[in-house]
From TrEMBL:
NAD(+) binds at residues 285-297. The record marks 146, 195 as: Important for catalysis. Pathway: Amino-acid biosynthesis; L-leucine biosynthesis; L-leucine from 3-methyl-2-oxobutanoate: step 3/4. It catalyses: (2R,3S)-3-isopropylmalate + NAD(+) = 4-methyl-2-oxopentanoate + CO2 + NADH. Belongs to the isocitrate and isopropylmalate dehydrogenases family. LeuB type 1 subfamily. Binds 1 Mg(2+) or Mn(2+) ion per subunit. InterPro entries: IsoCit/isopropylmalate_DH_CS (IPR019818), IsoPropMal-DH-like_dom (IPR024084), Isopropylmalate_DH (IPR004429). It comes from Ohessyouella blattaphilus. Homodimer. This is 3-isopropylmalate dehydrogenase.
Length: 368
């Protein structure tokens, strides 16, 4: 297969982890006989430094010519980076939000899976995770609080900040349909998470999810308030199959779920629109505290590349091959710092990428 893949290296650990994911995609090309061409694109802090804007029209235009885009995280340390002296609409995060909106990437899939060999890295008690867990967080990505009207003003010596949270039934319905479709191919359960005891937007969310559920009688639906969900994720993560939720709740709950898998460095993500196009990135940030040290975990980005192959290019076998290679390497007990156990051999970002590449062999794994 021939495909053009946009590459956004991003900021902080972004370039380090993306390098390893591209290495893995290159190995897939060789082993499976594909021809990928990579197009470098700018976003976030790197784009501000080069162009003065966190996202240019050129990046949007070029991204639209690609089958998919792979991205490292963007942003810097808000306390020290000069990017945060700029007005809010010119900071790195504004570029990320804008590209999601411009490309209509409303469905954010964040799979949180506990690998057997990573049980020791999970902070929960053994009896809570003995059976492992495998959940898919479906986060609405182009509506809600991050895209509402906002203002910051001073009146009579009082500073007032406003952020507004709006959802239409159309926005809720399309992500709910995606969630039910995905649940159907998994264990057949959707937990819709909201704050319907307080918010009108959540009451509409619940109504529309109930309407959509009528077309999916084979899928079990439960509603859960977000504060309870935050608690249940650490009390009994095994109960979840698909968690369907709005933008900000999904942002917060997915970071929490990532830690239960061992580390934010393990959590991949796919941001999809209603075509095959997608933007694929680790769920975590640019980790300025460890940037440039060669210690970041590249697995979330490598698993995001696997999602790219599966969801945008339809290369399921190749995606499974990457996932299995990751599982195999974790069993070797050679680990980056964030997932290391007592007797692990600590390795860096590049060595982790190399080990995963070495495990990518056609026919070498169950599905390949
Ligand atoms: N999608 C994106 O591009 C996102 C960007 N950000 C931006 O990232 C910057 C830093 O944000 P933080 O709140 O510090 O969150 P963060 O996710 O970057 O870091 C939180 C903690 O997780 C660790 N961590 C993250 N990824 C890791 C990896 N791959 N391997 C090992 N450890 C890892 C970090 O070292 C840090 O201790 C900010 O500018 C923020 O706006 C935050 C979240 C998502
Ligand atoms: C700019 C933020 C909304 C990024 C983030 O935290 C995320 O996508 O998880
Ligand atoms: Mg986040």
């Amino acid at each position: 297969m021939e495909a053009t893949i946009g590459i956004i290296r991003g900021d902080g650990i972004g370039p380090e982890i993306v390098t390893e994911a591209v290495k893995v995609l290159n190995k897939i090309q060789v082993v499976f006989g594909h021809s990928f061409s990579f197009k470098e694109l700018l976003l976030g802090g790197a784009s501000i430094d080069a162009t003065g804007e966190p996202l240019t029209e050129a990046t949007i235009k070029e991204a639209k010519t690609c089958e998919a885009v792979l991205m490292g995280s963007i942003g810097g340390d808000p306390n020290t980076s000069p990017w945060y002296q700029l007005p809010a609409n010119l900071r790195p995060e504004a570029g990320l939000l804008k590209i999601r909106k411009e490309l209509n990437l409303f469905a954010n899939l964040r799979p949180a899976v506990l690998y057997d060999s990573l049980k020791a890295a999970c902070p929960l008690k053994e009896e809570l995770i003995s059976g492992g867990f495998d959940m898919m967080i479906m986060r609405e990505l182009t509506g809600g609080l991050y895209f509402g009207e906002r203002s910051l003003e001073e009146k009579d010596g009082v500073r007032i900040a406003k952020d507004s949270l709006t959802y239409t039934d159309v926005e809720i319905r399309r992500i709910a349909i995606r969630a039910f479709e995905i649940a159907r191919k998994r264990r057949g359960k959707v937990t819709s998470v909201d704050k319907a005891n307080v918010l009108d937007s959540s009451r509409l969310w619940r109504q529309v999810v109930n309407e959509v559920a009528k077309d999916y009688e084979d899928v079990e639906l439960e509603h859960m308030l977000v504060d309870n969900c935050a608690m249940q994720l650490v009390k009994n993560p095994q109960q979840f199959d698909v968690i369907l939720t709005e933008n900000m709740f999904g942002d917060i709950l997915s970071d929490e779920a990532s830690m239960v898998t061992g580390s934010i460095g393990m959590l991949a993500s796919a941001s999809l629109n209603d075509t095959a196009f997608g933007l694929y990135e680790p769920s975590g940030g640019s980790a300025p505290d460890i940037a440039g040290k060669g210690v970041a975990n590249p697995i979330a980005t490598i698993l995001s590349a696997a999602m790219l192959l599966k969801y945008s290019l339809g290369l399921d076998e190749e995606a499974a091959c990457i996932e299995e290679a990751v599982g195999k390497v974790l069993e070797l007990n050679q680990r980056t710092l964030d997932i290391a156990g007592e007797d692990s051999v600590i390795i860096g970002t590049e060595e982790m990428g190399n080990l995963i590449c070495a495990e990518i062999k056609k026919g070498g794994h169950g599905n390949a």
